[in-house]
Task: inverse folding
């Protein structure tokens, strides 16, 4: 008969098994390691796309996966702006009206959120814009602004081909909107016509069509003149920055002062031309394959909140299949696509036991999860988050190197940046490593799509006077 296993041997076997499992999990998560060399490679590829996207040559522009769209916003606030300004913020979830009053560098704002029903969203151009103009009229009267001349910034968070600061055609509706007669039409013109019908054209003047990334940049620039770029890290990701006209061969606007313009990069599509394929993991490929837009928004899929949780879930499923997580057993709930949102990644990364318990209950594994399961779930969330932050930092570093603004502030907004407890730190640490000569501050933007739009209206109206 074989000798009875001693207690010490049992402990050793148990520990060996735990270490072996840990090593196997490490092997999986090693795929998300992003070396400084890889970050540098991303920066070089993105810089090439930036330059091609700004080129006067159609062939070169076609090679770029980023659009590099001029916003026609030529200056950031100087601090001397004064007066009353309006903003209309039309996004996926909300329709918001906002007024800001600037006096002696101080900003006071008033916000209202009128309802936006499915009936209005799916109506026709006249009904849709009359509804917006009607609520602008009510807002102006309610807040005793009727006797003023009010420049308005219009944040329109849908794909638009902009041709000047006050004109842009809707390329296509998204986010559940489908009002007829708006696609391929100038949305500023449609709003102005509705304001005429409501008798508001003498009071309200639409002076700027605004992208939410640009608004983010402007709302921080009012407080901090060192701001040189705007960054969105939320459901999606995008960035804009101030570029010299000398570096924009495709620029077709005037050559007057200020000889600069904010460029909306639309960098979420970086990598759509295949340039990032060798840096993606098999999990990225699966996420892309199973998404509603395969082979599109590749950079965004490595970073943003819409995809971060699902990427973590796909990795967890692989660990479950390998019996390295939850003893190889999970409920159908956790197997379901998109059942692990980015919010869960943030809760797990918080290191708060109660919050982690909430997540375990939500995915229905609370009863079977061991200490090592919880640790491995934390490691998965940390691995995908850290890589996302490093890739986002590579984008920011590319802008810093391109502009030569090594002491600068980047305005940032979005749920991922605001709610993920480690994301900002991960980015700051990465930026310090890859650009040690730079001093880059990431600054949270307060209400870029609303306040930022009104500030753009303030800047635009001041430039108009000059």
Result:
């Amino acid at each position: 008969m074989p000798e009875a296993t001693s207690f010490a041997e049992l402990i050793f076997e148990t520990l060996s098994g735990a270490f072996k499992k840990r090593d196997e999990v490490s092997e999986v998560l090693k795929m998300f390691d992003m070396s400084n060399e890889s970050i540098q490679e991303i920066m070089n590829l993105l810089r090439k796309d930036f330059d091609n996207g700004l080129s006067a040559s159609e062939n070169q522009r076609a090679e770029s996966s980023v659009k590099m769209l001029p916003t026609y916003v030529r200056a950031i606030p100087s601090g001397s702006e004064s007066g009353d300004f309006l903003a209309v913020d039309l996004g996926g979830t909300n329709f918001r009206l906002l007024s800001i009053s600037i006096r002696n560098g101080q900003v006071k704002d008033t916000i209202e959120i009128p309802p936006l029903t499915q009936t209005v969203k799916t109506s026709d151009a006249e009904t849709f814009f009359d509804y917006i103009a009607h609520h602008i009229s009510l807002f102006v009267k309610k807040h005793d602004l009727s006797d003023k001349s009010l420049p308005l910034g219009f944040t329109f968070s849908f794909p638009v081909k902009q041709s000047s600061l006050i004109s842009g055609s809707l390329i296509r509706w998204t986010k559940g909107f489908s009002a007829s007669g708006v696609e391929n039409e100038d949305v500023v013109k449609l709003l102005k016509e509705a304001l005429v019908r409501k008798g508001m054209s003498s009071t309200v003047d639409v002076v700027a069509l605004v992208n939410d990334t640009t608004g983010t940049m402007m709302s921080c620039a009012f407080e901090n003149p060192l701001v040189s770029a705007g960054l969105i890290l939320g459901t999606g990701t995008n960035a804009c920055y101030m570029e010299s006209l000398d570096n924009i061969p495709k620029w077709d606007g005037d050559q007057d002062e200020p000889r600069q313009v904010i460029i909306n990069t639309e960098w979420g599509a970086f990598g759509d031309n295949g340039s990032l394929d060798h840096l993606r993991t098999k999990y990225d490929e699966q996420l892309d394959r199973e998404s509603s837009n395969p082979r599109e928004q590749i950079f965004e899929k490595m970073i943003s909140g819409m995809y971060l949780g699902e990427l973590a879930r796909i990795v967890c499923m692989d660990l479950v299949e390998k019996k390295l997580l939850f003893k190889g057993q999970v409920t159908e709930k956790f197997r379901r696509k998109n059942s692990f949102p980015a919010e869960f990644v943030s809760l797990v990364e918080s290191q708060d036991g109660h919050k982690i318990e909430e997540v375990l209950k939500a995915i229905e594994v609370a009863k079977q999860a061991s200490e090592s399961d919880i640790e491995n779930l934390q490691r998965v969330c940390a691995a995908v988050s850290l890589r996302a932050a490093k890739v986002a930092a590579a984008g920011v570093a590319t802008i810093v190197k391109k502009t030569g603004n090594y002491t600068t502030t980047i305005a940032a907004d979005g749920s991922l940046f605001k709610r993920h407890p480690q994301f900002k730190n991960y980015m700051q640490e990465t930026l310090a490593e890859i650009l040690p000569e730079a001093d880059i501050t990431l600054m949270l933007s307060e209400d870029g799509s609303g306040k930022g739009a009104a500030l753009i209206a303030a800047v635009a109206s001041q430039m108009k006077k000059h």
